[in-house]
Amino acid sequence: MNAGAELAEIAFCIGDPSRASMLWSLMGRKKARPASELAMLANVSPQTASNHLKTLVNARLLKVSPDGKE
Description:
The chain is an all-alpha fold. It is 63% helix and 0% strand. It has a single domain, classed as Arc Repressor Mutant, subunit A (Orthogonal Bundle). Helix 2 packs across helix 3 and helix 3 (35-42) crosses helix 4 (46-58). The longest helix has 13 residues, at 3-15.
């Protein structure tokens, strides 16, 4: 993927208010937050949050750790 395409993908991810809210809530934290908490903070259903998180992981903006472990 070229730099322009990568930038467009990142812009798409952070351009959505729910995904931006999730990312913002994780910035600067040293520990993980559960998907259910991220859903609540973004004011979306757990199912919608799961889809948003998948998008963020696919864009390599987040890493998933089961049960908050690394």
